[in-house]
Design a protein that fits this description.
It is built from 4 helices and no strands. By secondary structure, it is mainly alpha-helical. Helix 2 crosses helix 4 and helix 3 packs across helix 4. The radius of gyration is 14 Å and the shape is globular.
């Protein structure tokens, strides 16, 4: 299997297949499908590398990112998606929200 992320982020590759998701809807559904332990492990691995990943992406042309760079960007979006459950709520769903959900109609591209 070929790498999904740039070589310098190979340590994050174990999370790539699960969290390099192109849409907010997919990232939100992935969050709801994961345990807190899975999200904590992902969060703990990505957060220390986030600044370096953002600096790496800042040096590339945003409108023509390579596939591996786009995957890295999607991985960062997923880190943001799990940050509130990990840092604040301690559960995948928004507390006291019952069965309600939301749909994102506008999201960053790529």
């Amino acid at each position: 299997m070929s790498a999904l992320l740039p070589e310098r982020f190979a340590d994050l590759e174990p999370f790539a297949a699960t969290w390099c998701l192109p849409t907010e809807h997919e990232r939100y559904n992935a969050r709801l499908a994961r345990t807190m332990e899975e999200m904590q492990a992902f969060y703990d691995a990505v957060v220390p590398r986030a600044e370096e990943a953002m600096s790496y992406l800042d040096e590339l042309p945003y409108d023509s990112l390579t596939d591996d760079a786009t995957n890295l960007l999607h991985l960062l979006y997923s880190m943001i998606q799990v940050s509130f459950p990990v840092e604040v709520w301690r559960q995948p769903r928004v507390p006291d929200s019952g069965s309600s959900s939301f749909d994102c109609t506008v999201e960053p591209v790529p």
